[in-house]
Amino acid sequence: MSFPNPQIKLTVDAIVFGYNEGKISILLIQRKYDPFKGQWAIPGGFVLENESLEEAVARELKEETGVSINYLEQLYTFGNVDRDPRGRVVSVAYFGLIHPEGHTLEATTDAEKAQWFDMETLPELSFDHKQIIDVAIERLRGKITYEPIGFELLETKFPFSNLEKLYTTLLGRPIDRRNFRKKINSLNILDELDEKISQGKGRPASLFRFNEKRYKQLQKEGIIFEI
Amino acid sequence: MSFPNPQIKLTVDAIVFGYNEGKISILLIQRKYDPFKGQWAIPGGFVLENESLEEAVARELKEETGVSINYLEQLYTFGNVDRDPRGRVVSVAYFGLIHPEGHTLEATTDAEKAQWFDMETLPELSFDHKQIIDVAIERLRGKITYEPIGFELLETKFPFSNLEKLYTTLLGRPIDRRNFRKKINSLNILDELDEKISQGKGRPASLFRFNEKRYKQLQKEGIIFEI
DNA sequence: TCAAAAGTGTTCCATTTACACCCATGT
DNA sequence: ACATGGGTGTAAATGGAACACTTTTGA
Description:
Two copies of one chain form a homodimer. By secondary structure, chain A is an alpha+beta fold. Chain A has two domains: 135 residues, Nucleoside Triphosphate Pyrophosphohydrolase, CATH 3.90.79; 64 residues, Arc Repressor Mutant, subunit A, CATH 1.10.10.10. In chain A, 27% of the residues lie in helices and 30% in strands. In chain A, strands 1, 2, 3, 4, 5, 6 and 7 form a seven-stranded mixed sheet that branches. Chain A has a three-stranded antiparallel sheet with strand order 8-10-9. At the A-B interface, strand 1, strand 5 and strand 6 of A face strand 5 of B. Chain A binds a DNA duplex through helix 4.
């Protein structure tokens, strides 16, 4: 068989989740060019010949939104024949988690604008991006129950109640405060700081910091988190 | 941005696991053409412009080994810049499970030959196929603990002990016969037949059949298997 | 009659769940 | 002083793990 040259193009897309005040949001860009000019889409673009998929997706995300993420996890590859009106385009989707306050969105040359959207009220999306996001949400929901990824969505210092609220939001159900605390404490992945924060009324809360070293050690030992 | 034409090619690869007499095996082909002519490789090939990824992988598998599988699950997409000496080739890997007795391997035009290899003693492999297989094995091991996929690896009728042996093999550790039986029975996914089979010496064993309808129902209800 | 594989229940332990009151602060 | 959110322990129930003997056949 000879080396073929089918007109199949390869893109990467980055589904980036953020969390703020009890809401999960997704980072979208407004398309500057046709097709779907002016519509919202997942940041992403064509893979260059001399870069890996991971490099491509980080580059595109940075170019289109100004956001840098060191770790994006591969989600799924979408390859339906007619998913792009320009021709045959296969897209490798990645997903990542950040806390939006730590990242400023930048107007860029590649996209009209970049903006966070509440997961519950997304605008109409280009291509098959709605489907891609659905897959990403499913994965996020699945993941949070066996990996304490929630921390990537919070600021570096946070009161325990923020973690709890994040989990109730992601799981879509209430969780028992005492049991949740017991479980998290038993993992020793939180360091309690000597700082307190007062959130409006009520007793001030201790601040915690995620102990990444301890977390990586647990991962190595194959210890499984379960909510 | 214009529609680019980078010289990136797209392939699909099929990692197919089989199980026979206490051994997990993987289906490989011997390459007929350069690069890696004469070496063993995972079946796969270039995606055509008018077929989906799933169609492509099923077609390539059929062409190169004679094996038809209706369900192949997407595993991971491998896109390192230098994974193929011919140039930039990105591969979407899929994996599937069959019972080898139900499928005859066919000599084909695309491959020198197709053959099952014991998972423990694989030959030297082309490209980054060793890495791909490692990822597939990891996924298989993970999957078996929360989904009763084992059934796809067995014949349609089988004694309970075969299922048990399969699990001990995949998990790499002994499991308690009574507890295992209790768990499987509690799921009601096995139908006991009015047939018995005598395997050499010893008391003959009842034959079971996997109740696919019941299994799909459980999946829908979100019930999680756990070994 | 012996060797080999199939089949079967109970007890113990660990983990998870359910559940309610006091504490510290702002208004 | 009251409203608001933070913080804590114990008891019951559930599910998982450990464990050994009887049954049926072939040799």
